[in-house]
């Protein structure tokens, strides 16, 4: 396995480290004939790994996300002579209930409460919020700990217990539409409009690597955003550039942005 050749195209240090770790595990899978499961990966990371794994001959792969069209998935790497059906599903679903509404507890509240217990972000998959009920996906190995330790989210006392995958809520999202104009499709301009911040304030987030476009970190303020791009700002949330319209008389571009709440 020529790891240097397989990772030569990767320019970001974190991307290269991720793929090199994955290649180390793939090599071990081929030698020891034992499957390996990654932590939860975002869509960009999954694509990175799949593109490299497609060039290997001794291993195969599949993903586990717990729900159809999951955003965050675990990549399972296994010997090519095995079948995916022989693999154990490493995931379990948990359901949180309590006297709260969908507006009372946000995705970030749930994540913050779980991370506050010392659980790493990479151990948590998709979070599905509903009225008085929140489902999320995690690894079987930490479910008991979470059921015992997670007693409160935000200011609400909660109950938590395992849930069957086929009873989980369908992914939904709360959002608001922002219509405005920008001087260009530069990343800092789109973020400033989408989050109601000044461009100078946004530049600090970008310089400190707190921005991702389509799940890939970037520190380029002049990155040109395209229609359909998903942009996340750490601690603030996520926006999607839904539409780019025509120019105004003042030579500004009309845009429609969806901000996820």
From TrEMBL:
Organism the protein comes from: Geosporobacter ferrireducens
Keywords: RNA-binding
Origin superkingdom: Bacteria
Residues that span the membrane, as ranges: none
Domain RNA-binding S4: 185-245
InterPro entries, alphabetized: Nucleotide-bd_a/b_plait_sf, RqcP2_RBD, S4_RNA-bd, S4_RNA-bd_sf
PANTHER family on file: MITOCHONDRIAL TRANSCRIPTION RESCUE FACTOR 1
PROSITE patterns: S4 (PS50889)
Listed GO MF terms: RNA binding
Claim: Nuclease is one of the keywords in the record: no
Protein name per the record: RNA-binding S4 domain-containing protein
Keyword hit for tRNA-binding: no
Family matches, as Pfam families: S4 (PF01479), YlmH_RBD (PF17774)
């Amino acid at each position: 396995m020529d790891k240097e050749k397989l990772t030569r195209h990767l320019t970001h240090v974190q991307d290269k480290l991720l793929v090199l770790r994955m290649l180390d595990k793939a090599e071990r899978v081929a030698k020891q004939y034992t499957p390996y499961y990654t932590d939860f990966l975002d869509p960009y990371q999954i694509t990175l790994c799949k593109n490299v794994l497609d060039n290997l001959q001794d291993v195969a792969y599949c993903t586990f996300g717990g729900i159809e069209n999951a955003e965050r998935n675990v990549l399972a790497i296994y010997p090519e002579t095995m079948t995916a059906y022989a693999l154990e599903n490493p995931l379990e679903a948990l359901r949180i209930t309590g006297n709260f509404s969908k507006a009372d507890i946000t995705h970030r509240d749930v994540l913050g409460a779980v991370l506050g217990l010392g659980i790493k972000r990479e151990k948590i998959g998709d979070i599905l919020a509903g009225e008085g009920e929140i489902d999320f996906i995690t690894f079987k190995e930490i479910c008991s700990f979470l059921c015992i330790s997670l007693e409160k989210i935000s200011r609400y006392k909660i109950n938590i217990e395992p849930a069957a995958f086929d009873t989980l809520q369908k992914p939904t999202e709360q959002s608001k539409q922002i219509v405005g104009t920008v001087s260009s499709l530069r990343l800092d301009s789109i973020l400033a409009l989408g989050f109601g911040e000044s461009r100078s304030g946004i530049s600090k987030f970008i310089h400190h690597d707190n921005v991702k476009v389509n799940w890939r970190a970037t520190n380029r303020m002049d990155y040109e955003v395209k229609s359909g791009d998903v942009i996340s700002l750490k601690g603030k949330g996520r926006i999607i550039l839904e539409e780019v319209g025509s120019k105004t008389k003042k030579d500004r571009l009309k845009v429609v942005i969806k901000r996820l709440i």
